[in-house]
Write a structure and sequence with these properties.
TIM Barrel, 7-stranded mixed β-sheet, globular, about 30% helix, Diaminopimelate Epimerase, Chain A, domain 1, alpha/beta, Urease, subunit C, domain 1, about 20% strand
């Protein structure tokens, strides 16, 4: 959220276990052949940028290693071993001595909520940690007066279980005492639940007789009255109201993007897939304004959000009208983001087998979009040109998503779409091979401490020990089946450092990726494919854009890859971090 601007680091968030002390050893790198120029061309003149004295990990098809590279007009024109050929050096050439630092292709984070995470209106009241609910009353009362952009008081950070089983009053009662005179909504740390007060419930028209919305649950106490906890899409109703577009909110949307872009650059991100774009809240206009002003310091693919409560005929037509794969040089609206299910940790993830513990959304979780609607959306929207970006956490959610994509393939034929399932935290063994068979990308996040192998059995009380052993985070199984895998952060549910996920992907026992290089490709070459940029980015090769991430250590030899520090970030040969 907004508060992370002041305290974000390249280390995991508080509460993550310590970094691993050992990392899978890589295959020895291959040395590059002499530098080359584009086939069949004659150099047009000296390069305008040259980087020397570096350890250049190209991640090209031969995994070559170089010591220098040159760019002209933002395009790489030479990669190789020093000395740099004289034809690329001239009186106007800027030569950057990197003093032995490692150069990687610009990093791609294909699932990162930078607009939401840095929104000044969203982080007014911060109630992080696992403290009992009632302990937040004073701080909620104090922060309410700081709200900007909205008639609601908005916040973030609580853990669901402190509200369900912690001592003290219900969320509704605590918020009523702290903020009695205006609607208030506090988002749970994963974004899959919300605390709300009585004024918020009244504003939303929710009472004891209100049915659960599609994709959500209105939690009620023993007396049948809403107790102030709204799960998934029920909570989204509150935030849709709280973030309603007005002139001040439109300005704050742009401010949020500026802050998020600066932080992404600090973490070496040169291409980004936004987590979701709430087009009813003005987020599309914010992205376009930033691009038009020349402030877009990365390549952004922004997926349009599919609202679960919208009329399907209206929404499908609206989304089709918004398809803009080349909205600007660095901006694309070419994906649609929708949720198949919720989150297993709060029992709203869609599971094949019933939950063995609490069941807040019924025995098998819930659907934002059920199987039939998933099939319709994929089938119709892929004919427009959209790649689908589908949140599926539970094994049933994953299966239904694959079923929908398979059905669309049977109806439309193979249109060459690059559909992606994000999270894939639980997957039935019989569904593993279907990712490769359907050419569907598995987008995995490992930055949160809860994803570590030693912590997976924290889920035993929810789904059962056998399900954890068989179905949780089957990354190596997916890789060996031939599936294309990307690693992303889902910021701000965990650290924005992609190196945390890369390190952990190669340190998962029998579910590890086979090498650090394979994990690095999941945030470069494979991620570029997902964003349809592989002709431009993802590797350092002649003819591709000069998007570079310069880091302080060799990822193949360091014992602390998670602690990697980004020294500088370059997009189209221009330095975007540190800002000049």
């Amino acid at each position: 959220m907004w508060w992370l601007v002041a305290c974000a680091t390249t280390t995991p968030l508080p509460g993550d276990p310590p970094s691993p002390t050992s990392i899978v050893e890589p295959t020895p790198p291959v040395t590059t052949p002499p530098g080359t120029t584009p086939p069949g061309t004659t150099p047009a003149g000296p390069a305008d940028m040259v980087w020397t004295n570096a350890h250049v990990v190209t991640l090209d098809p031969t995994s070559s290693i170089a010591t220098a590279l040159a760019a002209l007009d933002g395009v790489i024109v030479w990669v190789g071993q020093e000395p740099v050929p004289p034809e690329w050096l001239g009186p106007e050439t800027s030569v950057v001595d990197l003093a032995g630092a490692t150069v990687l292709p610009g990093l791609h984070d294909v699932h990162n909520h930078i607009l939401e995470a840095f929104h000044p209106a969203g982080g007014t009241c911060l109630v992080g940690g696992y403290a009992p609910l009632f302990t937040h009353e004073d701080e909620l009362a104090d922060c309410a007066g700081d709200q900007v952009g909205s008639d609601w008081v908005l916040g973030w950070g609580f853990d669901l279980w402190t509200a369900i089983y912690g001592p003290g009053d219900t969320p509704r009662e605590v918020l009523d005492a702290a903020i009695p005179d205006r609607p208030a909504a506090i988002m749970e740390a994963s974004s899959h639940a919300a605390w709300v007060n009585s004024a918020a419930l009244a504003e939303l028209g929710i009472d004891a007789t209100t049915p659960d919305p599609i994709g959500g649950v209105i939690h009620k106490g023993a007396d049948g009255e809403p107790d102030g906890i709204l799960f998934d899409a029920a909570g989204e109703l509150a935030f849709n109201a709280g973030f309603a577009l007005n002139p001040e909110m439109a300005i704050l949307n742009e401010d949020a993007l500026r802050l998020g872009l600066a932080e992404a650059a600090r973490h070496g991100v040169t291409s980004l897939g936004d987590g979701r774009s709430y087009w009813k809240r003005g987020s599309v206009e914010a992205w376009r304004a930033i691009a038009a002003s020349g402030e877009l310091t990365l390549r952004a693919t922004v997926p349009l959000w599919a609202y679960p409560d919208e009329d399907d005929d209206v929404q499908l037509a609206t989304l089709a009208s918004m398809y803009a794969p080349n909205d600007s040089d660095r901006l694309s609206f070419s994906q649609v983001k929708l949720y198949a299910d919720g989150l297993t940790w709060i029992t709203t993830g869609a599971m094949v087998e019933p939950y063995v513990g609490p069941q807040f959304a019924g025995p098998n979780g819930l659907n934002y979009f059920d199987a039939a609607r998933l099939e319709r959306y994929v089938t119709e929207l892929e004919t427009v040109g959209f790649d689908m970006f589908i949140h599926a956490i539970g094994d049933r959610g994953v299966r239904e998503t694959l079923d929908a994509i398979e059905s669309a393939r049977n109806t439309n034929g193979d249109l060459g779409r690059r559909h992606r399932v994000t999270h894939v935290e639980w997957i039935a063994p019989e569904d593993v091979s279907r990712f490769a068979e359907l050419d569907v990308v598995a987008d995995i996040q490992l930055n949160g401490g809860w994803t570590k192998p030693e912590n997976l059995h924290d889920n035993d009380f929810l789904v059962g020990e056998d399900i954890v052993d068989e179905r949780a985070y089957r990354i190596r199984d997916l890789y060996e089946s031939g599936a294309r895998i990307t690693l992303s952060t889902d910021y701000d549910t965990a650290s924005m450092s992609l190196f945390v996920g890369v390190a952990r992907a190669a340190d998962r026992g029998d579910q590890s990726l086979p090498s650090i290089e394979a994990a690095l490709r999941a945030v470069t070459t494979e991620a570029a494919y997902v964003l349809r940029q592989e002709h431009l980015t993802g590797s350092l090769e002649v003819g591709k854009r000069a998007d570079l991430t310069v880091i302080d250590r060799d990822p193949f030899t360091t014992s602390d890859l998670e602690g990697t520090v980004v020294l500088s970030t370059w997009v189209d040969g221009d330095q975007v971090y540190p800002a000049l």
